Each structure stands twice: as structure tokens, then as C-alpha cells.
Amino acid sequence: MKRTLLIASLALVSASAFAQSNVTIYGRVNVTVERQKTTVGGVSTSVYEVENNSSRIGFKGTEDLGGGLKAGFVLEHGFDPTVGTAASRFWGRESTVSLAGNWGMIRLGNMPASEAYFATADYVSMHNHDTGTSSDALYSFVATGQLQNSIAYNSPNMGGFNFAVQTAERNSSGSRPLVIASNYDAGALHLGLGFEKLADAKSLALRALYEMGAFTVGGYYERGSGTNKVNNIRLAGMYALGASEFHVNFGKRGDTNDVADTGGKQFTLGYNYNLSKRTKLYGFYTKLNQDSGDKFSSLAAGIRHNF
């Protein structure tokens, strides 16, 4: 009898704990087999590689504090499934605690990728979530990687509009990153703006994406200034037919700080086949041509599973 009461008591305590907080395990395993060709200084080499495409595992949770107030956390770790090792510092992809209400959300901790990047370059990279060898090689990652010991504010959604501000402690050179980003959704039209600043390097980018039935087209224009004086443009398109997706994107970056042969072009052609909402078979061909004469290309086939 006592044992039965003990088990019943433990069950009630566990049920109460789960009712107070909600914890989710999530992640992605994304691996490709690729034939890569690299040309440096006029010398070309070809290799076959099994590549990790930003695989990760994460834990996130929320607790309802009442009165519209919620506490939350995100812990996310990158790993390389091709060799079974870590691909980042432990929880290096994100480790934050948050407090949210009708007024928005405050986050504290480590958030390496900036909200400006998510609002612009990442948003239009539809074929493989801007990961792996076909990721955007031309975008200016001014503040990305500099947002440790950081604080961020994310506004609530206001008629399709929201914005975010991020900053962090000064780095070893005494510079403090600043990020401002905004998004606007109006039916089929999706707009984004991102600003990043670190020391004298600045980046301002504007993104647009439009859905037309089976077709989705988008792109961004980035203007760098200060020690990051540059013009960068990228266009992307997708056509969905049943379980199939056909992707194409093209990017062109001008010379940085007017230094000759520092720009480049990138072209990617991709195909995804959705086995389910979580699993895709896919392939792509990507080519990066630097104005200096250096080149990189990859022909890849892969499997991506989200959980």
C-alpha cells in the first residue's frame, strides 16, 4: 500500500513539473557526398568528400509564469555526424535565457548568428538553409560570431512587423557589436532589413521575397561602408511541383574597399525531394569564382532530416 502511494505521489509530482514547463529536443542531421574542385593560384585539385552541413542538436523550453509572462531557454550544439565529433564549442551555436511578455522578449547569453543575417541572407537561401559548401560565400558577416556575452530585444508582432536589437560586451580589441533587424510580412510579400556594425565595419542589407503559387522569388542587396565598403547582391528562386523543389540562386559581390580582384560571383542550382515534412533527399551544383582567379565548385547529393 505504501509503495502504491509513493508511486502515485511521484507521478503527481512529475505531472505537475511537466505542466509548469515545456522542454523540446530538436535538431538536424544533414550530410552530403560531394565531388569538389578547387583552383588556387592556377593549380586545380579534385577530391571526393562526405560533408557535414551544419548538423545540430538543441534543447529549448518555456515556463508560464502567469500574467502573460514566460521564461525560456535555448541550448544548441553543433556536431559533425561524418566523424562523430563536436563542430563547435559546446552549446556554441546558442545558449540563451529569456523573459517574454506582451511587450516582447529579452534574451541574454551566446547568440553567434545575428538577427540581421537571419532577416536577409539566411531568409532567401532556400535550397539548403544556407549551410555547407553551397552556403552564401559573399555576405558580409560583420557581427556574426561576435555576439557572445550578449543581450537582445525582440519586439512582438505588430500587424506583420517586428524588429530586434542585439549588442554585446566589447571584444578584445575594444569594439562592441551592434545589430538592428526588422521583418515585415504582408500575405505573399515578405520584407527584411538588417544592419550590423563592429568597430568601423558596417553592413546594411535589404531583403524581399514574394510567393506566387508554386513559384517563390527573393533576393537581397547589401551595402557595406567604413572598413567594409562593398556592394553585394543575391537573387534566389524556387519552383515547387508535388514533392519536388527546383532551386536556383546567383550572387555577385564587388571589390571590397576598392581593392582590385577582391570580389566574386557564386551560382547554385539545386533539387530537393521531400520524402516527408522532416526528411529530404537533395542535390546541388555550386560554383564560386573569385575575381582573383581562385575557384571552387561542388557537385553534391545528400540527406537532410529535421527532428
Could you characterize the architecture of this molecule?
This protein is globular. The protein has a single domain, classed as Porin. It has a 16-stranded antiparallel beta barrel. 32% of the residues are buried. 9% of the residues lie in helices and 60% in strands. The N terminus is likely disordered. A hairpin with a 4-residue loop joins strand 4 and strand 5. With 307 residues, it is mainly beta.
Helix-strand blueprint:
Layout: H1 2-20, E1 21-40, E2 43-52, E3 56-66, E4 69-80, E5 85-86, E6 94-101, E7 104-110, H2 115-119, H3 121-124, E8 150-154, E9 161-168, E10 178-186, E11 189-198, E12 201-212, E13 215-226, E14 230-241, E15 244-253, E16 264-274, E17 279-290, E18 295-306
Antiparallel strand pairs: 1-2, 1-3, 1-18, 3-4, 4-5, 4-6, 6-7, 7-8, 8-9, 9-10, 10-11, 11-12, 12-13, 13-14, 14-15, 15-16, 16-17, 17-18
SS field, number of helical segments: 3
Side by side, the strands of the main sheet go 1-3-4-6-7-8-9-10-11-12-13-14-15-16-17-18
Query: Can you write the helix and strand succession as a string?
Result: HEEEEEEEHHEEEEEEEEEEE
Cα-atom radius of gyration: 22 Å
Per CATH, the architecture is: Beta Barrel
- Oligomerization state: single chain
Fraction of residues in H or I helices: under 10%
Q: Which spans have pLDDT < 50 for at least 5 consecutive residues?
A: 1-19
Shape: globular
Derived structural class: mainly beta
CATH class: Mainly Beta
- Which sheet architecture does the biggest sheet show? 16 strands, antiparallel, barrel
The name of the CATH topology is Porin
Number of strands: 18
* Overall number of structural domains: 1
What would you give as the CATH superfamily? Porin
Tell me the β content: over 45%
Distance between the termini: 42 Å
